[in-house]
Amino acid sequence: MIKFGLYVRLEAKAGKEADLEAFLQGALPLAQEETGTPVWYAVKFGPQSFAIFDAFATDEDRGAHLNGPIAAALMQHADELLSTPPVIERWDALAVK
């Protein structure tokens, strides 16, 4: 059962919107390789507003993802792509349908 997750808010630098969008689309194969990450979404809210929403069965899987290749690549390119540091929020499910 999926009980744990992450919501990562990302704001693109002006002129870097397409680059951030391409980065997120390019991260999909990395997410697919993570057996402990059954749910992974990269979403766009507006021209500069993006997020990653993912979910995990265990807190250990969530920790592994935070220490995995997507997070490492994001932090490596954060200064280039983001206007502000990523906002990483951990969430624990209270009810699931």
From TrEMBL:
<keyword id="KW-0503">Monooxygenase</keyword>
<dbReference type="InterPro" id="IPR011008">
    <property type="entry name" value="Dimeric_a/b-barrel"/>
</dbReference>
<keyword id="KW-0560">Oxidoreductase</keyword>
<dbReference type="GO" id="GO:0004497">
    <property type="term" value="F:monooxygenase activity"/>
</dbReference>
<protein>
    <submittedName>
        <fullName>Antibiotic biosynthesis monooxygenase</fullName>
    </submittedName>
</protein>
